[in-house]
Design goal:
Distance between the termini: 141 Å
Strand order of the largest sheet: 1-3-2
Strand content: under 5%
Number of strands: 3
Shape: extended
CATH superfamily of the domain at 103-274: Cell wall hydrolase SleB, domain 1
Radius of gyration: 35 Å
CATH topology of the domain at 103-274: Arc Repressor Mutant, subunit A
CATH architecture of the domain at 103-274: Orthogonal Bundle
Order of helices and strands: HHHHHEEEHH
Structural class: mainly alpha
Length: about 325
Amino acid sequence: MISTSWTIKRRQPIQYYRRRRALQRRCAAALLGLCLIALQLTYGLHAEPHRISVNDLDASETSIATPAPDSPASPTPSAPFITQSRFDPGPAAAAFSLQGMSALTRFRATLCLTSAIYYEAANEPDDGQRAVAQVILNRVRHPAYPHNICDVIYQGSERATGCQFTFSCDGSTARVPMSAPWARARRHAMEALNGYVHAPIGLATHYHTLAVAPYWGNSLRKAGIIGAHIFYRWPGQAGEAPAFTARYTGLEPLPIPHPRAADMLVAPIDPLFAGTAFPALPKVASAPTPESATAANQWTPDSNIVEKYRDSGKWIKD
């Protein structure tokens, strides 16, 4: 009886440890599987952010759209654009060109459009940056917005909230741009200003990132998705081609955000001339005249200066 009881007591912990080890192996295998799935999702979705799962969008068919063949200087799209039957970008916009404008107008328009592309879509694929530029040019031609590029971009920037493009009022412009992404954004801005039309988004005038859901999203017509942005256009006649007939004024304001109420007393500086303007020369005080020196001595209080040194520093009278 003693040996049997001792054998039972010795077998129970051995079976317990065996079951625990088997459970640990199963947990390790499950954890490894989850890690593999996470790696696949990471490299499958984030390495190419411009590719969007059709299943996530409930799409029945996809098509890759390319720029209109008759659009001037049409570069080859670098990322596929996924459209759906429920997306309605409308017809391609008309080509925009700054030909015939002054050098100052071209400089300011290019700087404003480059800033918008950089701060709004620096991490987007090439087609994503072209789409942002197309939205801005579409607004320039729509009667609901200003008819120059800089005012469209910086509309509402004088307010802390409510600006049309977030970067213009959230302090993003305080960050110094990096040279390589800035050059890329400038290249796409110059393409758009020289007549390139990004046809996949058609007449879109709005966009937002996929991470947010603004209240106005359901009231507009979805035009498509490129990269991390979803694009919209106006519903009804406001979103059709005949509505985009406003003429470009050709007068660009300073390519900076609008001053706020607290900054209205400070005159803005044009960045075109900020680096070349000469600083004002300091004013040199002129030597006092004998008359001014005599007048000043009348108000000089009496002192304990020795009599023979009291006239030191005074003008010599002939």
